[in-house]
């Protein structure tokens, strides 16, 4: 299993599938299955069994919700030019109080700017 470079809250663009070209925000990342849940992408209809809430209102019926898609089918959108980009990691070493610490920053390959 490869390390997932996409995190919750990133803006991504779909590269393949029925929602190709759509951009959305990542809601959740499922590392065990290499899938991401993107807002407004890959919407499916679920049949929910009828029930009652504590107030007595009926629930159930048809519910439209997002379904996870594979992480290889999405790419992070570069904030500078709003186009999909690959990600690389810049490692910096800083010496503070006699201790050496490393910090890793995600960087867009297209522009070379930091991704927040």
TrEMBL record:
* Location of the region described as Disordered in the Swiss-Prot/TrEMBL record: 92-116
KW Ribonucleoprotein (keyword) present: yes
> One GO molecular-function annotation for this sequence?
rRNA binding
Classification via Gene3D superfamilies:
2.30.30.30
Question: A cellular component term (GO) from this record?
Answer: ribonucleoprotein complex
Q: Which CDD domains match?
A: KOW_RPL26 (cd06089)
Q: Which HAMAP family match?
A: Ribosomal_uL24_B
Q: Quaternary structure?
A: Part of the 50S ribosomal subunit.
Q: What's this protein's function? A: One of the proteins that surrounds the polypeptide exit tunnel on the outside of the subunit.
What family does the Swiss-Prot or TrEMBL record give for this protein? Belongs to the universal ribosomal protein uL24 family.
Name of the featured protein: Large ribosomal subunit protein uL24
Q: What lineage does the source organism belong to?
A: Bacteria, Bacillati, Actinomycetota, Actinomycetes, Micrococcales
Which gene underlies this protein?
Answer: rplX
């Amino acid at each position: 299993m490869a390390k997932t470079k996409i995190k919750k809250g990133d803006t991504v663009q779909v590269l393949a599938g029925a929602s190709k070209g759509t951009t959305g925000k990542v809601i959740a990342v499922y590392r065990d299955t290499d899938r991401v849940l993107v807002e407004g992408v890959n919407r499916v209809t679920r049949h929910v069994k009828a029930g009652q809430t504590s107030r007595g209102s009926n629930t159930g019926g048809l519910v439209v919700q997002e379904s996870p898609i594979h992480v290889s089918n999405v790419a992070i959108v570069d904030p500078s030019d709003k186009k999909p980009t690959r990600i690389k990691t810049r490692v910096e070493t800083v010496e503070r109080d006699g201790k050496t610490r490393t910090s890793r920053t995600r960087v867009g390959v297209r522009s070379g700017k930091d991704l927040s």
